[in-house]
Specification:
homodimer, 472 residues, alpha/beta, Arc Repressor Mutant, subunit A, Aspartate Aminotransferase, domain 1, seven-stranded mixed beta sheet, 17 strands, globular
Amino acid sequence: MYELTIPFSEKEPLYEQIYKYIKVQIRTKRLLAGTRLPSTRKLAEHLGVSRSTTQLAYDQLVAEGYLEARPCRGYFVAKLDTLFHLEQKMEQAEEKKSGEKQRWLVDFSPRGIDLERFPYGLWRRLSRNSLSDDNRELFSAGENKGDGALRQAICTYLYGARGVNCRPDQILVGAGNEYLLMLLHQLLGNQRIAMETPTYRQAYRVFECLGHQVIPVEMDGSGMRADALEASGAKIAYVMPSHQFPTGIVMPIKRRMELLAWASGQEGRYLIEDDYDSEFRYKGKPVPSLQSADTKGRVIYLGTFSRAVAPAIRVSYMMLPESLLALYESSCSFYASTVSRIDQRILTEFMKGGHYERHLNKMRGIYKAKHDALLAALFPLSESFTVSGEYAGIHILLKSRRGHTEEELIQAAGSVGVRVYGLSEFDIGKQEQGKEETGTVLLGYASLGKEEIERGAGLLARIFSELPKGKQ
Amino acid sequence: MYELTIPFSEKEPLYEQIYKYIKVQIRTKRLLAGTRLPSTRKLAEHLGVSRSTTQLAYDQLVAEGYLEARPCRGYFVAKLDTLFHLEQKMEQAEEKKSGEKQRWLVDFSPRGIDLERFPYGLWRRLSRNSLSDDNRELFSAGENKGDGALRQAICTYLYGARGVNCRPDQILVGAGNEYLLMLLHQLLGNQRIAMETPTYRQAYRVFECLGHQVIPVEMDGSGMRADALEASGAKIAYVMPSHQFPTGIVMPIKRRMELLAWASGQEGRYLIEDDYDSEFRYKGKPVPSLQSADTKGRVIYLGTFSRAVAPAIRVSYMMLPESLLALYESSCSFYASTVSRIDQRILTEFMKGGHYERHLNKMRGIYKAKHDALLAALFPLSESFTVSGEYAGIHILLKSRRGHTEEELIQAAGSVGVRVYGLSEFDIGKQEQGKEETGTVLLGYASLGKEEIERGAGLLARIFSELPKGKQ
């Protein structure tokens, strides 16, 4: 048995000193994997401390994975590979957190959103009110579909802003789109699901993970092709008609009608409309939802507060058409809501007080200014590049007219410290043939300041115009 | 077109009066299903109000399902059957909320928990601190498994209180057990799952809904029988060894070892340990978890804060053994956490500050006092009834020695205004043969006050001892 002699100081609690001492011994391999440590009792005697002190130290070491507690046998130093694997991961995570920001002068990530303007003060106030003594019932279980008042507020908003026709009882509130898709999966059963490609990979992963067969369907300038959809043999199609991610295509009414006709052509066909960032449109009238044109009850409508409010607000909603609602009521209505009632109450007040619409209006103005600044700064490239997906959402696409590959563009941008994203990153189902080369990169601008955008776009404009003609 | 003439008063907003007027017209069938209403513009002109006023009224009526808005066509009165269906449901829900409490003098529901003693003030304070300006990062996306600090706190708690051996990276935090089972489903694939019968029906429904084949496995006085499990051909067994719901059986160490041996007997076998109310034990030492005896990594451990803290705190956790953790990392780690970071932070502080353990200790004392009061008040029945499942959890079982059926007991209790629950309600997979008659009823006491318990149990003692001998 290993002899532990610890030079105690008075500055730290004893258990902390024991914990740190043993941790260093393990990390420096003075204590090797599999070594059995003295029992908490023996170590306590040996060090002249209480047993609860040694127990605390061991607990901490076990919790952090340095020691293994084997029932009836004692404490053993954990296997080093597990340990280093763990540490590497932690280091990688650290690096990811702190490192990336520094490695890039400007990162045009399409995933960011602007959290600077979130109404923190208001949210705190609403939260405080929700937690007042009068609201104790918020700690008991609520309605399974989500609180009635919130579903009512969502309905009213959706009707006004997106033309969605529904009753509150058709709305399910859940902790994120992914959860709602899991729930939907239980209503639809395993199906062939058609998706645009490129598409929102997170939804693709969910469908794959749930065991659906996902069929990538060709797009043209109007979005998913109806003939290709028909030929795919799919029962369900997942589309983003208001602003397709990542192409930014807005589906025109003709194509919408074709997709709706496809859906009503056979029993059991549905369109999943993911209206993920339809709130942000900078030119012309907002495009109403696909659901608003659906007279046959074939559209399942999905929306989220994660993008328009904040990613940490894990609240999404799904509107079910009558046929699926009946199925939900009979088979899945036993699931309790996954969103805490307190959060539901805060969000309800946020919507009912008109704060949500005001917040959207404010963010629309802010994002539009960023959007405009980006387009203006990219203007010098307008002869050699085309821009698409603009005037909506929070990213644009930049495509070379001179035969550059995605990789060449990403490399060139990287050489001046600017990060851009290849369109093919969002392709699905082409692992065999390799990615399709479109010479297009994505630039997200939501989380960047105006000056960062101008600086980044200025650097891109310089380096891209200096690029020799591409190979394609 | 229907002529609307509304006698306006000055007491309410105009839109409210329009909304109410039309609603009454529809409910009293003066406006019939399918009737087209004037456009918002025409109605505004007709009534001499602004168009936004009529729009607001229509929006509300649409949101509540009284009107249907058909794109490009206008507003129509909704179909009455849908509407009445809707109203009936709302009425039923209302009745459920207000009515049941009144219909029963004392309701021994096994589903209630005591929310009177929830530390509202503390929770508010922690919530306020979490939302302080320094914590703005809480509104951005967090770790997919749940915040590291919370997983660390859960690990430390589980090790100390339940003997669970794990590292924080084995813990997944999710919005309720049901969600975590959906996630687990994606790791396990469709399987034959063995469950005790009677059992926790909510978990049974989840498995069924996800498409697993659930096989009810016989229990004896030690819980799920290992030979019956082996014979069932199941790959997965869902058990509650610390305090089986609803029987209250505590699985002895010998049976635990048999189940663990079963699990390691074949690749891909796992035990799901649902440790749902292990926090509450009133006699002897706490029984350590099944996981604490698992040396082969065959136990998936599930725990929740919904029962020990509050149902609205939708936070549960699942501990994955190494083999499933690797699978999770490679296939399902893309799922974002379903719990808001703010709630995670509050809970972390609640645990780290020692409040959780203090709260559990307090509740244990409170529940024990209720438990003791119930047993004492049922003492007059001790010759004709046996009590089981006592000294733990928040309900007990009462079984007639004189051949009464469940139904006879429920009826007799109901005749004096007391509600008790039949054990067979929790049976699974016996739809064909009918419920098994055990002559046993459940009495939950968590949400009742001491006086209510004594009154209810007193009434039961009187009416049950007056019952003529049963037919069995």
